[in-house]
DUF3299 domain-containing protein (Cognatishimia maritima), 143 residues
Amino acid sequence: MMFTRRHFTTGLAMSLGFGTSATVSAADTPLKLRELYKRDGSFSALALQLEGQRVTVSGYMAPPLKAQSKFFVLTKMPMSVCPFCETEAEWPDNILTVYTKRTVKVIPYTVGIKTTGVLELGAKTDPNTGFLSLIRLAGATYG
């Protein structure tokens, strides 16, 4: 049997754990916002499965609603203004509220970021701002 480059790379990949059924933590591979919603705007099966777990989501930080805030909105595309500030019925299916433990340090809206926190689903109103969220990361870090 002739040993080819394909045999070498396949063997190398298998020895490194690629192509095996090794499990990966939900926080290891960044999710995209679209993976959390179905086409009709409801939560995806993946979002329901990951509820209560620590996950990482990639996107862009929308400008915070107010200074000294402890949350921001993660969007799938850069947005220079608040993406909504509307009622529950009008909740966009491409955003995620991110609650942090500390005051948010604003990152330019054109810079992609990754944020990691515990995924929470369901309507929740922030007591300080009246801000309504349907899906959010709690205790999150970002950068």
About this structure: Residues 24-142 form a domain with the OB fold (Dihydrolipoamide Acetyltransferase, E2P) fold (CATH 2.40.50.140).
